[in-house]
Design the sequence.
């Protein structure tokens, strides 16, 4: 009996200690205390939960997930913790499956579901989750929730989804204004997006007006995402020098966000085109560094792959160009771009006949789905080889386009 009382007192003291460390957010000490309790009583559910939470707070997601999986009896109610670990470990599809199994999800489960759907680029479903949360939740996270919702609207806008037009966004923080700018960007309103981004930068700077401890470098770090997006808006308006200046300004600061640095680097490669290849090679290495696949959208990854492919073309790296063009073709089966890059490389290698044959084979496979770009490229190659009759025949197959003055003039020269 005395031994039992002593053990009870010891556990009581350890729980007091555990709660104190938890409130102080000293997770290392809390973890050690939780381990002591579990050593005394391995079935203690509260201590087990504390241990899982501590591991998550310390960023040890793999350990936390393994602990949950090894102890199904103790972790039967740990759906959120399991899904969160999976999400942070980039097991996003598994996280979605875990969350979908929750019958009556709490707000925090639905918040995580929204983040998972956003990462999976399932924006329409993500929209529904956040819309429901915003309608039925009143707490301290409303602004953060609305900021996330704004990012969803911007993504839907880029996809021309009509859902994006159902809601207006407040503009009470620079994050909300930034998302409004991205929404306008998706609509192709570059002037409006530029104005919003300038407003977002102004609001961000004013947030630090009375904070004497914040350095200019720290403010610049906060402004990086705005400046990269502003650079893209300027680039789309043909203001290339201003865009390049902004990209290089951000990259010079060595941003902590590798995904944003990759986007800025890729955009510089795009601006360089076939000039300044040495700089482009450095930038493309940043844009294709390991681990970026979880920090970039599929569209961003595809754009980087395209520019990497074109860089190999401009650098006379034929084999690498062909390899990436074939990979791009697998990712973009409906696009003409990979075929046109392969043909450009063949032409650059002075294999004109092979380029012509490649296009003819492609046209034969596509049948009625053949594109004008492919046919025009084939006609150009035929003309360069002096095959005017073949070129005229190719141009005549363009349908309504074959009646355009320039095409009629070219066809009549035979």
Sequence:
């Amino acid at each position: 009996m005395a031994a039992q009382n002593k053990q009870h007192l010891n556990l009581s003291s350890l729980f007091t200690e555990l709660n104190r460390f938890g409130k102080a957010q000293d997770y290392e000490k809390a973890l050690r205390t939780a381990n002591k309790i579990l050593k005394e009583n391995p079935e203690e559910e509260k201590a087990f939960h504390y241990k899982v939470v501590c591991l998550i707070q310390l960023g040890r997601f793999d350990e936390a997930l393994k602990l949950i999986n090894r102890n199904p009896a103790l972790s039967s109610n740990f759906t959120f913790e399991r899904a969160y670990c999976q999400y942070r470990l980039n097991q996003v599809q598994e996280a979605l499956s875990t969350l979908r199994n929750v019958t009556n999800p709490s707000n925090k489960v639905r918040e995580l579901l929204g983040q998972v759907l956003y990462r999976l680029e399932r924006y329409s479903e993500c929209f529904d989750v956040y819309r429901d949360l915003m309608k039925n939740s009143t707490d301290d996270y409303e602004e953060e929730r609305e900021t996330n919702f704004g990012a969803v609207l911007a993504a839907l806008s880029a996809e021309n989804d009509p859902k994006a037009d159902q809601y207006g966004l407040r503009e009470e923080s620079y994050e909300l204004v930034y998302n409004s700018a991205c929404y306008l960007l998706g609509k192709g309103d570059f002037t409006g997006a530029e104005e919003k981004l300038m407003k977002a930068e102004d609001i961000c700077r004013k947030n630090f007006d009375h904070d004497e401890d914040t350095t200019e470098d720290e403010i610049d770090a906060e402004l990086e995402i705005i400046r990269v997006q502003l650079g893209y808006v300027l680039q789309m308006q043909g203001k290339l020098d201003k865009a390049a200046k902004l990209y290089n300004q951000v990259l010079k600061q060595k941003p902590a966000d590798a995904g944003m640095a990759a986007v800025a680097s890729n955009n510089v490669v795009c601006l360089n085109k076939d000039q300044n290849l040495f700089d482009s090679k450095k930038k493309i290495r940043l844009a294709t560094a390991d681990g970026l696949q979880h920090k970039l959208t599929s569209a961003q990854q595809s754009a980087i792959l395209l520019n990497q492919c074109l860089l190999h073309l401009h650098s006379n790296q034929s084999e690498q160009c062909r390899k990436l063009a074939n990979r791009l073709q697998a990712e973009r089966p409906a696009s003409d771009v990979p075929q046109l890059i392969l043909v450009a490389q063949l032409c650059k290698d002075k294999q004109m006949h092979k380029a012509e044959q490649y296009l003819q084979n492609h046209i034969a496979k596509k049948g009625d789905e053949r594109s004008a770009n492919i046919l025009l490229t084939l006609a150009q190659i035929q003309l360069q080889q002096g095959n005017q009759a073949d070129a005229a025949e190719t141009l005549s197959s363009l349908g309504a386009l074959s009646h355009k003055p320039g095409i009629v003039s070219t066809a009549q020269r035979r």
